[in-house]
Specification:
mainly alpha; rod-shaped; disordered N terminus
């Protein structure tokens, strides 16, 4: 009876090998994930609304309305720049994660096709194309 445990050697499984070091996230990666989770929920949006309302009602406190406008533009500009950098990083990592999952599925399908190619010669060419395509995004 064959064991259902996956082999411990990842040399013949590129997707598994590339995942081996993925648990070593940096402080920045953890920060990005935390920030992404916070800004994608209602409390962050409500904080933004409060910031705009406070800015709006503070107009009478300013002598020069140009400075009043500059303050909000500067604050919003800085926050926007930082959020774009964080969200792009999170999006890139999510894309890499999705691609990794697709590669694992493709590797499994390629292995299945290889095992069935003996019975169906048409699968041999499909197996070769699929095997060549796994990891294609890294080569381009």
């Amino acid at each position: 009876m064959a064991s259902s445990k996956p082999p411990s050697d990842t040399a013949d499984r590129p997707a598994a090998a590339s995942r081996a070091g993925a648990d070593q996230r940096t402080f920045f990666d953890r920060f990005v994930e935390s920030a992404y989770l916070r800004v994608s929920h209602t409390p962050f949006f409500m904080c933004c609304i409060v910031l705009v309302v406070v800015w709006f009602v503070s107009a009478p406190l300013w002598d020069d309305l140009k400075i009043w406008q500059t303050v909000i533009h500067t604050v919003v500009g800085v926050i926007t720049l930082l959020l774009i950098a964080l969200l792009e990083n999170a999006g890139r990592r999510a894309e890499e994660s999705a691609q990794e999952k697709l590669n694992v599925i493709a590797e499994a399908l390629a292995a299945l096709m290889e095992s069935r190619a003996i019975e169906d010669p048409d699968l041999e060419e499909a197996h070769k194309r699929l095997s060549d395509a796994v990891g294609l995004e890294e080569r381009h």
